[in-house]
Amino acid sequence: MNPPLLIGAGGPVIPNFGGSSHQFACEKANRLFCWDWFNHNWSTTLWPALRQHVVLVVIAVALGFAVSMGLALLAHRYRRTEQPMIAFTSFLYTIPSLAFFELLVGIPALGLSFWTAEIPLIAYTLLILFRNILAGLRNVPTEVLDSARGMGMSRRQMLLQVELPLALPAIIAGLRIATVSTVALATIAAVVDNQGLGVPIISGIDNYYFKTELIAAGVLAVLLAIAADSLLVGTKRLLTPWTRTRAV
Amino acid sequence: MITNFVDAFKFIFRNGQIPGQPHFTTLTYYALGTLKVTLIAMAISLVIALPLGVWLGHRHRGSFIAINIGNIGRALPSLVVLAIASAFLGIGLNEVLVALVVLAIPPIVTNAYVAIDEVDRDLVDAARGMGMTDWQVLRQVELPVAIPLLMAGVRTATLFVISTTTIAAFAGYGDSLGEVVANEASYHLYGLLGASICIAALAMAIEVGLALLQRALTPVPLRRAEALAMTDETLVPALSGV
User: Fold this and answer.
1) What value of ipTM does the predicted structure carry?
2) How many Å separate Cα A23 from the centre of its chain?
3) Where are the domains of chain A?
4) Extents of the domains making up chain B
5) Would the CB atoms of A99 and B83 count as touching at under 8 Å?
6) CB pairs under 8 A between A and B
């Protein structure tokens, strides 16, 4: 089996796990988890990577949400636009992540840049967000809409005061799925832009599969996903108090 | 911009042969490798995950596990799973398969569970009232009705596996199209773009194949009703528009 990442590395003959100049004993032995290395590299490697990861994910989900909301409102108003939008977002979702990132590298204006990393992440959120927002808007009961209209609400008032609030549970459910999968996907973005938790993962692979770095970055990514998910669940509880009183 | 992609297409159709693999061009060889790993990984995952999800759904048991395994699976970064499999098990086909199976099982289990669990209870009761055995209820009532949702899980998992197979090149497994992407130094930007186009085309071809399989598996009387819901899932309109 050819190990492509080692070619041309010109690295030392004795594996330098962790990649630091002065090695800890547990680092040299590549034990399951080297706390010394973790403490030593937390502030220089892992913490900055985590912060960059949060930025990558927040921008991707925020922009993805804005685009999806626009598309969903359009599809809600003009039903005919729904099919092409679903087809387009499904098409984007089918492109394997590595291919998507690398294809953008071929566009000179993008190259290896932040937006090359960001665009596929945004694109992957569209399918789930668009569908959930639209499903949420469509599932508002007709009686409710009729009463709103009967109260003399304008189309705009109905949307802002009736339809969107009632669609919130579905919208947040979509945001949860989109956010959690973007946290996982954003690790691959490091291939095109040196940012986020993918950086320590790739460096862990380059450093002869240095276990501590791989595990630390992996666990951080999963914890970040769980934290983001809990935050959205909390937001949902705050924003939709009526769903709590309704017996399930 | 145009030249990059023109060169990429030239590379796809004219790329040379790999030493020792005289019968295939580089991209054909790696595309077949990607396909092979994907098929093996999906076969193993289906054998493990489908019966588990279907059985749990049929018994209406273990909803917490069945649903949460899907949530956890979504949070696992594929690059990490691949790298950790390589770190602990080594580099090679079997090790990559372990990682792929770990990533493919959650969506299949969760969707199979939800699909069977949510089959209309009245329908199942009616079937039992007609004197159907447990097995007949599952085989003739629950499974046919559950096909669309169940297949959605299989399709998600397949996409995930193809995508991860190519990423595996970054974790040391080189027998896939990802190998070309990971080695820009040898294949240049046009090779990388050409391989990326092939990966995307392969994923879409498989997705369309599975959409057709789903249609074939759906009983004819259910197809008409399904046609509406299916346009949500299927990628055929997307491809014809591109």
Assistant:
1) 0.82
2) 34
3) 44-238
4) 2-18+25-239
5) no
6) 170
